UniProtKB/TrEMBL annotation:
Residues 3-154 form the N-acetyltransferase domain. Transmembrane segments: none annotated. PANTHER family: N-ACETYLTRANSFERASE 6, N-ALPHA-ACETYLTRANSFERASE 80. PROSITE patterns: GNAT. It comes from Solibacillus kalamii. This is GNAT family N-acetyltransferase. SUPFAM superfamilies: Acyl-CoA N-acyltransferases (Nat).
């Protein structure tokens, strides 16, 4: 399995867009259209934000993760952020998520950052069990409870 920048693997743009759209956009009720998501992922960067990584082998895409400059408006002092980690259900339990996270941490470190942040509404135990440090619980503009975590990159 390989982890690479989505910008280097454009053949996976539609598949990544579909994963993120179904798992994050629709569930959040943002109103964003699928075409907007495809446009977004068609314009991710190599080494400036937003950055998207993809896990794949041959022609099979297993999962994705992105790195944003900010993923929580009320916490602009934290940056950058791990976002939209998704592994296809049939590939879970194979270490895909860990590999994506490890590569994201490496990219963030290469960019000169000492820490990487994330927000989660329902996966706090997953990140705690992988060495992330809990920072705080906040409420967003919709009054959802959000746990904020960080990890050292260097």
């Amino acid at each position: 399995m390989k982890i690479d920048l989505l910008s280097n693997q454009p053949e996976f743009i539609n598949e990544v867009s579909e994963m993120v759209y179904k798992e994050f956009v629709v569930k959040a009720g943002s109103g964003m259209k699928f075409e907007d998501v495809v446009h977004y992922f068609s314009n991710t960067k190599d080494y400036s934000f937003p950055i998207t990584l993809v896990a794949f082998e041959n022609e099979d895409c297993f999962g994705t993760v992105s790195i944003f400059e900010n993923d929580l408006k009320i916490r602009r002092m934290y940056k950058p952020w791990l976002a939209s980690l998704y592994t296809k259900p049939e590939n879970r339990g194979r270490g895909v998520g860990k590999m994506l996270i490890d590569k994201a941490i490496s990219v963030v470190s290469e960019l000169g950052y000492d820490e990487l942040y994330l927000r989660t509404e329902d996966a706090s135990d997953y990140y705690r069990n992988r060495g992330w440090t809990y920072l705080e619980t906040v409420s967003d503009e919709k009054y959802n409870k959000i746990d904020v975590f960080k990890i050292k990159c260097k």
